[in-house]
Amino acid sequence: MEPVMRDSSPEALWREVLGEYLRAERQRQRRILTEVALVAGVSPQYVSEIERGRKEPSSEILAAVAGALGLTLFDVTAGIAASLAAAARVPAVVSAGGSRPESRPSASSGRARLHLVA
After folding, report:
1. Domain that holds residue 18
2. Between 114 and 64, where is the model more confident?
3. Inter-residue contact 53 to 13 (CB < 8 Å)
4. pLDDT of residue 116
């Protein structure tokens, strides 16, 4: 029998996970968007678009925004990788007969919401 997916949520896009991570970190630090943008040397509108997952920043812009938050590119990458790894462990496949569950990654044809824990 064909396996039945418990969770068919598609995989999140990098820019969305990145934006959620940066916003969560900024809010954890209790900083406002305009201050971070000023320190990073970019417009507040651009930082907002990054945080909302609308823009995928260049490595230079990402380094500037991360630096304004006191983070390195390694910190950001490691934080996002941990979030993605945690999300990948959630879905499981169950056989149609309801017997033995099997681990299996979810489909990756779209977007899903990740909720980052600060």
Report:
1. 12-90
2. 64
3. yes
4. 53
